[in-house]
Amino acid sequence: MSQIAFESGLDKNAANYTALTPLSFLTRAAEVYPDYPATIYQGTTRSWSETHTRCKKLASALSRIGIQAGDTVAVLAPNIPAMYEAHFGVPMCGAVLNTINTRLDAATIAFILEHGEAKVLLTDSAFYQTVAKALQQLKSNIIVVDIDDHHAGAPQERLGTIEYEEFLQTGSASDYFPLPTDEWNAISLNYTSGTTGNPKGVVYHHRGAYLNALSNITGWEMSDHPRYLWTLPMFHCNGWCFPWSLAAIAGTSVCSRSVSGEMIYQAIKDHRITHLCGAPIVLGMIINTKEQDTCTIDYPIKVMTAAAPPPAAILQAMEDRGFHMTHVYGLTETYGPAVMCAWKSQWDQQPADQRARLKARQGVRYQVLEGLDVLNPDTMTPVPRDGVTVGEVMFRGNIVMRGYFKNLPETERAFQGGWFHSGDLAVMDDDGYLRITDRSKDVIISGGENISSIEIEDVLYAHPNVLEAAVVAMPDEKWGETPCAFVTLKQGTQCDEQQIIAWCREHMAHFKCPGKVIFSELPKTSTGKIQKFRLREQVNGNTATRG
Amino acid sequence: MSQIAFESGLDKNAANYTALTPLSFLTRAAEVYPDYPATIYQGTTRSWSETHTRCKKLASALSRIGIQAGDTVAVLAPNIPAMYEAHFGVPMCGAVLNTINTRLDAATIAFILEHGEAKVLLTDSAFYQTVAKALQQLKSNIIVVDIDDHHAGAPQERLGTIEYEEFLQTGSASDYFPLPTDEWNAISLNYTSGTTGNPKGVVYHHRGAYLNALSNITGWEMSDHPRYLWTLPMFHCNGWCFPWSLAAIAGTSVCSRSVSGEMIYQAIKDHRITHLCGAPIVLGMIINTKEQDTCTIDYPIKVMTAAAPPPAAILQAMEDRGFHMTHVYGLTETYGPAVMCAWKSQWDQQPADQRARLKARQGVRYQVLEGLDVLNPDTMTPVPRDGVTVGEVMFRGNIVMRGYFKNLPETERAFQGGWFHSGDLAVMDDDGYLRITDRSKDVIISGGENISSIEIEDVLYAHPNVLEAAVVAMPDEKWGETPCAFVTLKQGTQCDEQQIIAWCREHMAHFKCPGKVIFSELPKTSTGKIQKFRLREQVNGNTATRG
User: By Cβ atoms counted within 10 A, which residue in A231, B27, B433, B435 is the most buried?
Assistant: First the structure.
């Protein structure tokens, strides 16, 4: 659309246009709330003024060793202040932040460093052995800065020539770094933890990071100065953009090297935590914390959860313990959460199990996401809003990635038809809330019928003795595939295969019930996702028939 | 800055880029909260679904009479649902919304319609006589749609050929209007009410409207579904962008043709209002509401105030009545509020008068405003943060206007040196909060000393008998200028000139005290600003000597 009359003398200039970037939130927090706590870690509290200074020093130090706009700087660290600072210091000098999952193996780390063309690696000393191996495999040169955290346990050998705190001292807080002139510039590079094949490097830009940081605040109805506990890894989709959200509202990052139920309750006692995020595994930790380590929660604590669709029983158990649950959904490709189960007050009147069922839906688009729909991928038309017709979840808008780094074929495939294809299958309810039924590859096709593994898992989780459950397809001579359930029981409880199957037959269509139940621990990715591909390997070749 | 490695294969496409526009908030509200109330007016509640449909019909109807992208559509109406709908329906068809102050005289209305090149005027029937006169003066053709609101009193004659509700019926809700492809497109045109000269047409774009709508939410810490009372005219800076904020969080607009203390308390009783905005004149109405018309306020009501720096005594009186006050500052050129007095919890411990003094400061930049400073306009360098050195308030960022419509000289003057020059004088305190001392032209220069008229007004407002006060410069033979105070006393109280002057001498430096006190009603602009230029006319030629 053109607007001819409005085209003259009304151009962009330095006064009326600036590129969107979350870096401006840090400057503002330091200006307005210099003395407010930005990070708390192991008894050390750093203010926004100190944090701003440290970020500027990091940018300056990087710049002085030759890092230029568009260079990649990788960080491998747990949720410690250095990791938080990297979210600002690295992009401040124009570089691109590549956070690496600390649980990856050496070969994958080497692949990421190589593919992402990292010029510098900041690495936490606790991961010395794996990183040393990764560096040996690396063909290109890289400058290594050791983050020597004495809370990490026994002192580790150094991999680089300088320690993080010393490195900061080589920079000057008075070096000037203009904000990016182009909001489309890359701010970060996040490799998906993909269960097969080489990881893909998802590129975020300053514009999207800025907008999703704001959308976290408006969507989750966050007030100023939250006390946010880092139970979600910052290496995961840049902590769902929360490092930047927290700067926008001058919140406090309560940092920790590791996550446990005990740690979470301790942080609640010590710091009156108001917000935390995490995959269902974190919820499980909270629910299963020994009673003597818990505390009464007498003020609202908001918990945002995503990753796997949370079983209704777990959502309910969290609410019972006093946590206010918000269910979100997104992918690395959508800056973390981009969809949320926006809660409606009229649902408060529903019985508990119905409330949990409603809340277990993925829901509706974030305020800053322009388009979200469940489409038939062949016709690219929306599925009927009937709660049963399955289609693929697709996204469009400013919090969809720029694309995959150096991977045009995958980028083009992902953006076919002008939508980002998530690979997740879902139905759309008549109220416009979507519900994920499965990852494409997790669907079980039995006798021509699609069976949702998630639906079966939901039933399994509702069983009083079940701690964790996962369902995969098992080859079946008669039906093609049949569901196979992997179950971990709660400590001190017992159950046999027949009892579990009987429970399922009582609660769902018989054709959907597992043909086999295997009791075992469930293999998980470093971000706590259950690795179904490992379970599939386990059942591959096994056959079963269904009665 | 270039980012070479990140320049390839990572371009904008339909999946990962959309122009920012607040229109997308309306679509989302209608999708997610179709049954939630969008507008309430005189017993009629319309849902988001209905409101969305009506906005689409308005866009369609405008389009069908030939309105094209970039055409101006003017609206002259009070805070009624049609006015709210215009904020979406007009830009939806690509047109530019020009809301007109309902209290303007015919000549000024004619000037605005002519200068803004409005193709259509939607006009509320209550303003029949003035608008009829304005239309007679108009040289260009304009299509007039009458908004025939039977709550406006006696039925009025029609000025156009079609009534608003009939006009909506000529449109179809299924006409498709794509969102703007360029977020820099004009969304609205707001003429400043300027006290001298022809009004200037301030152009807003979709990007700025979107960002300030979000910033209102994050800055004011608004939760979902506020019940917002329209005490601020929507014709004033597009209601400070709140029509769009409310769509983003599916809030309810409680509409009203006029504002009074009684109406405000009635709305609180009927609709449990959570938020309202207004100039100090609105605060005065609340404070001076007869006790029998008030009610106890047992839940938080947030009030945002701006326009003139609010006297500390009025802020305190509002808090005493149970309203939580937020003080903001901005200009038509900055989309309404762009600066806010962000409150710090440690200030809660201060005595009441000190709290009010802190809150009467204008404060710090909005989260989406990139730059705010008090600069020496000659050197364009920041004044020292000493709370006494006066400079000019300057803005930069995405919520600064595109410029003045068809007025390149004024646009260039306003943007000199890459900052928007507000014309407001201020000091910067050492904590980075700015405090307006005066409009440039309101400073009184007496014996070479600058005297802030606002400082004197603050002292006058603190006097128990003073209802309203304004101070202007009066020519003085000895000192050049001396302050002349205009005072309205509270009903049933008495005071003479000597008592007022004695009060001032007790509370401020003697050289700043008014040389003369005139008791009278104060002339106000249609937006409730005291018209100092009229007071200046009154004293012009008068002289006084100071003791």
Answer: A231
Q: How many CB pairs under 8 A join A and B?
A: 201
**Contact yes or no for B70 and A367 at CB 8 A:** no
Helix, strand or coil for residue A36? coil
Chain-chain contact of A31 with B364 (C-beta, under 8 angstroms): yes
Look up residue A224 and give its two tokens. 């100023």
Tens of pLDDT, residues A249-280? 999 999 999 999 999 999 999 999 999 998 87
Sorted by where each begins, the domain ranges of chain B are 28-36+46-206, 259-440, 443-539
For the stretch B283-341, pLDDT in tens is 989 999 999 999 999 999 999 998 666 677 888 889 899 999 999 999 999 999 999 99
Residues 6+ apart with CB under 8 A from A426: A362, A374, A390, A391, A392, A393, A434, A435, A436, A437
ipTM of this predicted complex? 0.86
pLDDT of amino acid B531? 80
Which residues of chain A are under the pLDDT cut of 70? 1-4, 154-156, 193-197, 307-310, 439-441, 447-450, 525-527, 541-547
Q: Which fold has domain A47-206?
A: Rossmann fold (3.40.50)
Pick the closest to residue A75 from A260, A235, A276, A237 (CA basis).
A235
What span, in angstroms and rounded, lies between the C-alpha atoms of B200 and B403? 10
Number of neighbouring beta carbons within 10 Å of residue A311: 24
- Asked whether the domain spanning A443-539 has the same topology as the one spanning A259-440, the reply is no
**pLDDT per residue as tens digits for the range B408-457:** 999 999 999 999 999 888 999 999 999 988 766 677 877 666 677 887 88
Query: B415: which chain A residues are within 8 Å (Cβ-Cβ)?
Result: 13-16
Contact A398 B16 (CB under 8 A): yes
- Residue A440's contacts (CB-CB under 8 Å, 6 or more residues apart) are A392, A423, A424, A425
Span B259-440 CATH architecture: 3-Layer(aba) Sandwich (3.40)
Tell me how far apart the 2 most distant CA atoms of chain A are, in Å. Answer: 78
Distance from the first to the final alpha carbon of chain A: 63
Exposed, middle or buried: residue B527 (CB in 10 Å: 0-12, 13-18, 19+)? middle
- Return d(Cα A445, Cα A349) in angstroms, integer: 37
Nearest Cα residue in chain A from B179: A1
Specify burial of residue B148 (Cβ count, 10 A radius: 0-12, 13-18, 19+): middle
Report the 10 Å Cβ neighbour count for A355: 18
- The top-level CATH class assigned to B443-539 is alpha beta
Residue of A nearest to B27 (CA): A370
Q: How far apart are CA A146 and CA A128, in angstroms?
A: 9
B257 three-class SS: coil
Q: How far is CA A117 from CA A142, A469, B223, B471, in A?
A: 9, 39, 43, 66
The closest alpha carbon to B95, from B69, B66, B65, B121, belongs to B69
Residue B232 gets the label, from left (phi > 0), alpha (psi -120 to 50) or beta, of beta
Q: Work out the number of other CB atoms within 10 angstroms of the CB of residue B526.
A: 15
Closest CA to A48 of A255, A268, A246: A246
In whole angstroms, give the CA distance from residue B340 to residue B361. 9
How far, in Å, CA of A89 to CA of B87, rounded?
40
B346 and B339 Cβ atoms separated by less than 8 Å: no
Chain B neighbors of A14, CB-CB under 8 A: 396, 415, 418-419
Q: In CATH, what number does B28-36+46-206 get?
A: 3.40.50.12780
